[in-house]
């Protein structure tokens, strides 16, 4: 009898061991690739396009104004007294982007002698909280989710940058909407390092042109174009929102884009911080505008079933079939990563700006990006933060075409031709707003809003869904 | 006569049922793995457009199978991007070889240290008389139910104070601590069931506790040690969380699992490489498992079923 119990216990222990092994997995599971990746900073001097080789030897006061010959970056704004000091940085960008981030620091390291070491991990969002609690946070963190950074600010894990960065300098380097987004609890929580443009529609160029289709300039034109495609026996749209734990975010991006086009930016801000309810007519209208495309079986390749079951990364694939199984796909600039290897942006596939609905609101752009925040206050870390406010700091990544530098002194000449358009769209935006679901509290922005989209596509009643999203707001 | 026949028939039917059932279960369990295996030889575009079974339904596509994924995983991905002037630049990304060595550096001590300590402890609990023995043993068993996640932050704080963060020593100690309760418990079960006569006669011959442990206990408990070694090895090898927290993701220390996770790319665009990566990382645990597996079942059950 005793031995039997022992066997049982052993088995149980084994199971608990195995289970605990399994249990740890979700905690560490890669964050769904919801939002843009943290990108890298592109810094430049006002005039821009030149090699950042200007290594003027003399050290200067950090606060000195940038006034050097046109096209050269003035390195003398940085101090050289921190030679040999190390600064650690961490963020969710891995692989190629991590390599580029490290590269983007090279010129800075050459001049200042400060060694910046970036390490990427896809679990950054989870890990940085643990590390901060354990007082082992990296010096710099790349945050793609302002909501998470806000959380960090509340716990006082982040240094207020206004203590050493000049307000005027920041105003010069960034558009006001970026600065507003970086203000959290009255502190400057971080500086913007990169941006992604989300308001894009992709189409297969050769077949699009062969069929005589024209890039639409307004929403009505886009709907008319869709109708025309249906009449020609084609399917206009490809949509897929499956993204494992983050399924639904593709839909929230659509809603946000439509919100910006059907109501004022002020209302959008109210909506993202909870003052404007999901049940309000503005938000409801956005859902209805979207449903005219999403829930129309003639418009969407595979209908609602395909929307729910196609991984977002696979959803543009039918664009590249011959003949294309669909002609339009709305997705952020990073979707190029998921295109077939040999597809060339510009010749095989191209993009246009998701057209405005109401001329009153101009050309708004929805985007996302990464903020670099400072977690340990040391003089050499301050020096790196200052570097990140210049467009030049993101130039390497801009030249590689992987991201857009949000700083005002970044130059359009840096981008490869195919990616220059993203930067242009961003620069020419009448309004720029950040991905709303990333600004909302996690329970909504990474929870009820996502699942609400899934329920909506599944055919559940709109009022009921909006009500349940509202109910999810933390009290 | 007829009776024997029907018995044989019954046996046959039950054989068919049992074997058929087993076959079906094995088949269901193996098919996805096989699918991943086939997929690891296919390109991303193929994977996202057609299923792996296409190689059977349309054998002509077998020619599209290639080693590109394995090549990318083993030697590093090649990044191609356009420079502003329009020319293409190519660069090699990180490969798995460094992290492979890191993983071995982590996993071997993190397996050996807890086993050694646990074997000592198990012997002490089983054969030595000292006050509070039962209470200590209950404490060890109670620790089994403490999930390691709740220990992460306090341990990390201590490591930060000691300056251990990001060193291999830190992760060896962490894995040792997290592995010890189960190790001690399993080994105690086995060691306490060894025949009392052997140990008593050794005592009479004048052997010390240490000699008995080294000369008698260790050789006799090889099956239990080996089976726990498999457990601990697999657990540490597959661990991502503990390594991320205590070791960090710098290339000179990052373990295989982290590298594998990073291979997927920031947006998850290169998930197809995971197929090849999975089979490569699977290789070492499989070798360990098959070389130790004859002890596995014996080690788990021996000691507990013997009177």
Helix/strand/pairing class of chain A, anyone?
Answer: alpha/beta
What is the strand tally of chain A?
11
- CATH fold naming of the largest domain in chain A: D-Maltodextrin-Binding Protein, domain 2
Unreliable stretches of chain B: none
User: What value does the Rg of chain B take, in angstroms?
Assistant: 26 Å
Number of strands of chain B: 2
Low-confidence stretches of chain A: 8-68
- The CATH superfamily name of the largest domain in chain B is MetI-like
Overall description:
The complex is a heterodimer of chains A (475) and B (307). By secondary structure, chain A is an alpha/beta fold. Chain A contains 19 helices and eleven strands. Chain A has two domains: 174 residues, D-Maltodextrin-Binding Protein, domain 2; 200 residues, D-Maltodextrin-Binding Protein, domain 2. In chain A, strands 1, 2, 3, 6, 10 and 11 form a six-stranded mixed β-sheet that branches. A three-stranded antiparallel β-sheet of chain A has the order 8-7-9. In chain A, strand 4 and strand 5 form a beta hairpin. In chain A, helix 10 crosses helix 12 and helix 18 packs antiparallel against helix 19. Chain B is mostly helical. Chain B has two domains: 91 residues, no CATH class; 205 residues, MetI-like fold (Orthogonal Bundle), CATH 1.10.3720.10. In chain B, a hairpin with a 5-residue loop joins strand 1 and strand 2. In chain B, helix 4 packs across helix 14, helix 6 packs across helix 8 and helix 13 runs antiparallel to helix 14. The longest helix of chain B is centred in the N-terminal third of the chain and has 38 residues. The mean pLDDT of chain B is 87. The chains are: A alpha/beta (475), B mainly alpha (307). The interface between A and B is large, with 60 and 66 residues.
